[in-house]
Amino acid sequence: MAQFKYTAQDYEGKKKTGTMNASDEGELQQKLHEQELFLVSSKEVNSNKAKKQFKSSVLADFSRQLSTLVGAGVTLVRALTIISQGESIKPKERVVYEDMMRQIKQGISLSNAMEAQNGVFPTLMIYMFRSAESSGNMEKVSMQMALLYEKEHKLNGKISSSMTYPKILTVMIIGVILILTKFVLPQFEEMFSSMETLPLPTLILMGISDFMQSYWYIAIAALLGVWVGWRALMKLERFRRGWHRKLLHMPLIGKLQKTICTSRFARTLSSLYTAGIPLASCLQIARKTVGNDYIDSQFDEVISFVRAGNNLSDGLDMVDGFNRKLSDSIRVGEETGSLDSMLESSADSMEYDADIAINKMVSYVEPVMLIIMGIVVAFVLAAVFSAMYGSYDSIGSM
Predict the structure, then answer these.
(1) What is the pLDDT of residues 325-347, one digit of tens each?
(2) Which residues have C-beta within 8 Å of that of residue 380, sequence separation ≥ 6?
C-alpha cells in the first residue's frame, strides 16, 4: 500500500491537503469521496526511506501513556491525540503520532500504522502490539512494553554513565600533555639547549614539544582522521562483525559484553514468547536486539535447529557470546514445562548480572585511568628534573 500526498476540495470549494494510504490513485479517489472530498491532485510519497528509531525513553513514555488511556476506556484515536499534544513531545514525534492517528481513522490497525513509520518503532514493539490486537489485551501489553523499554533505558544509561568518568580522565590526560608540551616545556628550552647531553626522557619530551609547537594542526588532523576512519570501518559489515567478536573475548570487557548481550536477548525473548508469538519468530526478532553483529550472525543456524524440533536450550548452547547461565535456565524450563516463567526469571537474573558487571567494570576502569594519568605526569616530571639536575652537576663541576 502506497502513501499519497493529496490536494482535495469539498462541496463548498474549500481546499484540503493531507496524506493517505491507498493501493492506487483510484482507491485514493474513492476514500476521499467517502469523506465528501474531490481529488484535485496527488503525488505518491516515497516512504521507503528508513527513519531513525525512537529512543527507548520515548518508546517507554508512549507505551505507558497508551496503556493508561486505553485502560481508562479512551479510543485509540483520542489516545494518540492526547499523546501528540503533550508539552514534552518533540515536533518529529508529534508528526509520527499524527500520521498514525490519520491512518487509524482510515481503518488501519495500530500495529500496521506503527510499521508504516519506517523504522521509528522497533520490530519487537510492532509484533507485541499486533499480538495485543488479536488477544484484546492492549492495556496489558502496552504496560509490558513500557516496563521493557524503561529497563532498556536504565541499562543504556548505566552503560553510558559508566564511561563518563573514563572519558573525563582521558580528556584531562590529553589536556595535561598539551599544556606541558606547548606552554611549560618551552620555558626550559633555552636551558636545555645549552647542555651538551640530555637524558633520553628529556629528548623524547622535547621532541614531542617541538612537534606540537610547529605541527599541532597535524596532530589534530590525525586524531580527526582516526575518528572518521574508525566510523567508516564500523559501517563495513565484515569489519564490524570481527570487531564485535573481539569485544566478546577481551579480558574484563568481554565478560561485560556477554552479560549485557545476554540480558537484552533474554528480556526480548521473554516478552515475545509470553505474548504467544511462535518461538522461531521470537528468535528472529530477538536476535536484532542483542546489539552485537557477531552473535546475530550465528542465529540462522540456531533458528533452523529449533525449527527442526530441537530444544531451544541446545540451540542457544551453539551461540558463542551468550552466558551459559541462560541456556541452563531455559533447559530447566523446558524439562518442567514452565518455559514462559523461566524465561522471565532468567531475564530478571541477567539484568541483575548486567548491573553488577557494569559496576565492577567501573571499579576497574577508574584506578587504571588514574594510574595512566600518574604515569604521564611522572614521566614529564622525571624528564624535566633529570635534565635540571644534570645542568646543576655541570655547573658544580666547573
Answers:
(1) 889 989 998 888 888 888 888 88
(2) 176, 177, 180, 205
